[in-house]
């Protein structure tokens, strides 16, 4: 070790006695420097101090204990695990994993709305308190075992909007309907869906309304949430395809659980085409490819969700009115629409040429209709509506639409319009 030079010895000797506690007391150690006020540079800027990063355990301990706290959410079953989705229909950081044995013992199903009491401060173990706000142990029907029947109870949608009045006249909707709104881009399908949602909320408050938006534009999601008085379940186009399919599947499962309780549920789905595209992206490799490059798996899964709509003898009903894109130039979209069309029992067709002429709602009256509509209309209504269709069939699309719109807008109600039609063959 080098000995101090004579100059160093003279400097140490000149220091005050209080600072001469050791050979290196004039140069504070790193420990003493952290304990004192941070050193400053010649520019008088404070030296940067390293902020310690809290460990995950420390962050969790800073939160209030969640023991005995009750959490309500929808049950989801993924990869043989049971989750309580606490913040919506998609996976989130506050979800709770339920023991599989406990879920089986209680008979939990995907789509159940449950309330669980957290048993440990970690918030990862929970005891189920109630299922759909009912006591545990109550016997429940199974949706697959319920008897499907034709829609017989009419869902009147007539409001001040022209589109809802046209729907009641041309394509009546019943509880348990499986309806399609077939529309090319920019033909007004979103406006039609909002009008239907407003009519259901205003005229049928006892109906459980769910609006499911798949791959929608973010601004449209905001508009729906602000305007629709119902549950809006949405994914935006910038989310992964698996989010679109998972959200739609869990929403339909939730609707099924309500039907099992005898509730009447209406699901407005926008759109089946985007849902089919999402399923096509995530389809397992090696599947059969159909017309337009679409996988058979995508067609089957989309039809399976759409086919859940039905009226039942046991009392509940699930109505699905979904949009489907047509005239997009895609063979895949055309094939999907034809598949959905064969499974639906109501179709409202919007026309691009009418929309370009600024005729709204741009409904193709001749191509729109409801299967077994005689079960939803009274005898008098049925006779008048059939005569109206015979008259409109002899006109082109523009004349048919303008004629019926003029008659609807000059009549205070559809009943008054039908009474006027009973006395005249002129749809105006």
Automatic annotation (TrEMBL):
<dbReference type="InterPro" id="IPR003593">
    <property type="entry name" value="AAA+_ATPase"/>
</dbReference>
<dbReference type="InterPro" id="IPR027417">
    <property type="entry name" value="P-loop_NTPase"/>
</dbReference>
<comment type="function">
    <text>Facilitates transcription termination by a mechanism that involves Rho binding to the nascent RNA, activation of Rho's RNA-dependent ATPase activity, and release of the mRNA from the DNA template.</text>
</comment>
<keyword id="KW-0067">ATP-binding</keyword>
<dbReference type="GO" id="GO:0016787">
    <property type="term" value="F:hydrolase activity"/>
</dbReference>
<comment type="similarity">
    <text>Belongs to the Rho family.</text>
</comment>
<keyword id="KW-0805">Transcription regulation</keyword>
<dbReference type="GO" id="GO:0008186">
    <property type="term" value="F:ATP-dependent activity, acting on RNA"/>
</dbReference>
<dbReference type="GO" id="GO:0003723">
    <property type="term" value="F:RNA binding"/>
</dbReference>
<keyword id="KW-0347">Helicase</keyword>
<dbReference type="GO" id="GO:0004386">
    <property type="term" value="F:helicase activity"/>
</dbReference>
<dbReference type="InterPro" id="IPR011113">
    <property type="entry name" value="Rho_RNA-bd"/>
</dbReference>
<keyword id="KW-0547">Nucleotide-binding</keyword>
<feature type="compositionally biased region" description="Polar residues">
    <location>
        <begin position="16"/>
        <end position="31"/>
    </location>
</feature>
<feature type="binding site">
    <location>
        <position position="217"/>
    </location>
    <ligand>
        <name>ATP</name>
    </ligand>
</feature>
<dbReference type="GO" id="GO:0006353">
    <property type="term" value="P:DNA-templated transcription termination"/>
</dbReference>
<feature type="binding site">
    <location>
        <begin position="174"/>
        <end position="179"/>
    </location>
    <ligand>
        <name>ATP</name>
    </ligand>
</feature>
<feature type="binding site">
    <location>
        <begin position="186"/>
        <end position="191"/>
    </location>
    <ligand>
        <name>ATP</name>
    </ligand>
</feature>
<dbReference type="InterPro" id="IPR012340">
    <property type="entry name" value="NA-bd_OB-fold"/>
</dbReference>
<comment type="subunit">
    <text>Homohexamer. The homohexamer assembles into an open ring structure.</text>
</comment>
<dbReference type="Pfam" id="PF00006">
    <property type="entry name" value="ATP-synt_ab"/>
</dbReference>
<dbReference type="Pfam" id="PF07497">
    <property type="entry name" value="Rho_RNA_bind"/>
</dbReference>
<keyword id="KW-0806">Transcription termination</keyword>
<keyword id="KW-0378">Hydrolase</keyword>
<dbReference type="GO" id="GO:0005524">
    <property type="term" value="F:ATP binding"/>
</dbReference>
<protein>
    <recommendedName>
        <fullName>Transcription termination factor Rho</fullName>
        <ecNumber>3.6.4.-</ecNumber>
    </recommendedName>
</protein>
<dbReference type="InterPro" id="IPR000194">
    <property type="entry name" value="ATPase_F1/V1/A1_a/bsu_nucl-bd"/>
</dbReference>
<dbReference type="InterPro" id="IPR004665">
    <property type="entry name" value="Term_rho"/>
</dbReference>
<feature type="region of interest" description="Disordered">
    <location>
        <begin position="13"/>
        <end position="50"/>
    </location>
</feature>
<feature type="domain" description="Rho RNA-BD">
    <location>
        <begin position="68"/>
        <end position="135"/>
    </location>
</feature>
<keyword id="KW-0694">RNA-binding</keyword>
<keyword id="KW-0804">Transcription</keyword>
């Amino acid at each position: 070790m080098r000995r101090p030079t004579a100059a160093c010895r003279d400097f140490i000797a000149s220091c005050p006695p209080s600072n001469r506690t050791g050979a290196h007391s004039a140069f504070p150690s790193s420990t003493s420097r952290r304990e004192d006020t941070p050193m400053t540079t010649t520019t008088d800027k404070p030296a940067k101090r390293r902020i310690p990063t809290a460990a995950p355990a420390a962050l969790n301990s800073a939160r209030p204990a969640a023991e005995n706290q009750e959490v309500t959410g929808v049950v989801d079953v993924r990869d043989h695990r049971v989750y309580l989705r606490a913040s919506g229909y998609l996976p989130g950081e506050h979800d709770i994993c339920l023991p599989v044995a406990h879920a089986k013992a209680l008979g939990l199903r995907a789509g159940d709305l449950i309330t669980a009491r957290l048993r440990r401060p970690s918030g990862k173990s929970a005891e189920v308190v109630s299922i759909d706000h009912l006591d545990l142990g109550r016997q429940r029907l199974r949706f697959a075992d319920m008897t499907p029947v034709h829609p017989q109870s009419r869902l009147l949608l007539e409001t001040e909007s022209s589109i809802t009045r046209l729907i009641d006249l041309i394509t009546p909707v019943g509880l348990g309907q499986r309806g399609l709104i077939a529309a090319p881009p920019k033909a007004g399908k979103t406006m039609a869906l909002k009008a239907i949602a407003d009519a259901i909320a205003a005229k049928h408050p006892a109906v459980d309304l769910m609006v499911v938006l798949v791959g929608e534009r973010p601004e449209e999601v905001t508009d729906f949430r602000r305007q629709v008085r119902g549950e809006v379940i949405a994914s935006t186009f910038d989310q992964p395809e698996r989010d679109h399919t998972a959200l739609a599947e869990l929403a339909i499962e939730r609707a099924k659980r309500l039907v099992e309780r005898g509730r009447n549920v209406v699901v407005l789905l926008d759109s089946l085409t985007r849902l089919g595209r999402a399923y096509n992206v995530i389809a397992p490799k090696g599947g059969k490819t159909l017309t337009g490059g679409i996988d058979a798996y995508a067609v089957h899964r989309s039809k399976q969700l759409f086919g859940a709509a039905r009226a039942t003898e046991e009392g509940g009903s699930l109505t699905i009115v979904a949009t489907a894109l047509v005239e997009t130039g895609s063979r895949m979209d055309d094939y999907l629409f034809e598949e959905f069309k064969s499974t639906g029992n109501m179709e409202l067709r919007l026309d691009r040429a009418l929309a370009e002429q600024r005729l709204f709602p741009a409904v193709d009256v001749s191509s729109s209709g409801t299967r077994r509509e005689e079960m939803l209309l009274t005898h008098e209504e049925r006779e008048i509506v059939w005569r109206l269709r015979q008259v409109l069939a002899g006109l082109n699309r523009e004349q048919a639409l303008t004629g019926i719109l003029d008659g609807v807008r000059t009549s205070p109600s559809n009943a008054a319009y039908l009474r006027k039609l009973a006395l005249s063959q002129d749809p105006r």
